[in-house]
């Protein structure tokens, strides 16, 4: 099959969306499929193919609520005229999904969306967006949600949208199937008896890191040593066209 994946960021950018799409794309390529990814142009990406996955970059940013900047027209034409068997878009509320709303009726490939939670569902600025969204989602052939009960799948049920599947998010068995580092604490200066609290997430400013740090600062740790590890990457640097 020839497949088109659309996501705001992709390798070498680091993040949940990027890694899930990379894993799916590369594994499909290894099975003999042809996969192209349409994504944001990055300053540190100097290649157009990675592990067999073709990458097409666009200097675009934003979404329908904040406004979209850059070569939106070129992206819309690319998707509209791309000959493939299926299109997979990961996440609403970002430009690779929002920009093609007017073109969905002209795209004849099977269209699949992974909504990724609808983080703006209860935000005042997104009221109009989510009022329009049911009609948009009915133009998709399939929706994929990560949990049986969450705001995005509840939204789909409330508006009788579908068909959809619930597939729990996963992690690469190769990356996590490694032996534990025996001297991790010593390498990082963590006492052996310390309670370690770890949070992993991109440092976007909207993942609760500030609240976690404030809570940790209030934590009473006089009876036992506690170590807080905030593990994450800085936001990706985009390039405009």
Walkthrough of the structure:
The longest helix is centred in the first third of the chain and has 15 residues, at 16-30. It is built from 8 helices and 12 strands. It has an 8-stranded mixed beta sheet with strand order 3-4-2-1-7-8-9-10. The chain has a two-stranded antiparallel sheet with strand order 5-6. It has 2 domains: 2-166, Glycogen Phosphorylase B (Rossmann fold), CATH 3.40.50; 179-231, no CATH class. The model has no long low-confidence stretch (mean pLDDT 93). Helix 5 (151-158) links the parallel strand 9 (142-145) and strand 10. The chain has 241 residues and is of the alpha/beta class. 27% of the residues lie in helices and 24% in strands.
What is the CATH topology of the largest domain? Rossmann fold
Counted beta strands: 12
Q: First CA to last CA: what distance?
A: 30 Å
Give the H and E element order.
EHEEEEEHEHEHEHEHHEHE
- Percent strand: 15-25%
Q: Major sheet: order of its strands?
A: 3-4-2-1-7-8-9-10
Structural class: alpha/beta
Unreliable sequence segments: none
Report the total helices: 8
């Amino acid at each position: 099959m020839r497949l088109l994946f659309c996501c705001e960021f992709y390798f070498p950018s680091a993040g949940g969306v990027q890694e899930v799409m990379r894993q799916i794309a590369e594994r499909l390529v290894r099975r003999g499929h042809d996969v192209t990814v349409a994504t944001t142009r990055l300053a540190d990406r100097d290649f157009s193919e990675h592990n067999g996955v073709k990458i097409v970059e666009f200097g675009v940013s934003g979404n329908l609520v904040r406004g979209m900047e850059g070569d939106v027209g070129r992206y819309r034409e690319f998707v509209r005229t791309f000959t493939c068997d299926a299109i997979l878009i990961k996440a609403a509320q970002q430009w690779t999904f929002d920009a093609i709303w007017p073109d969905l009726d002209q795209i004849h490939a099977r269209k699949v969306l992974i909504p990724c939670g609808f983080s703006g569902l209860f935000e005042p600025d997104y009221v109009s967006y989510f009022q329009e969204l049911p009609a948009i989602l009915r133009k998709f052939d399939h929706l994929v949600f990560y949990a049986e009960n969450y705001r995005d799948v509840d939204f789909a049920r409330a508006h009788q949208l579908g068909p959809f599947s619930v597939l729990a998010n996963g992690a690469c068995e190769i990356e996590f199937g490694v032996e534990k580092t025996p001297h991790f604490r010593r390498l990082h200066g963590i006492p052996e008896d310390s309670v370690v609290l770890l949070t992993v997430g991109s440092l976007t400013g909207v993942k609760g890191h500030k609240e976690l740090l404030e809570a940790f600062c209030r934590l009473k740790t006089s009876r036992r040593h506690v170590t807080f590890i905030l593990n994450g990457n800085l936001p990706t640097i985009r390039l405009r066209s």
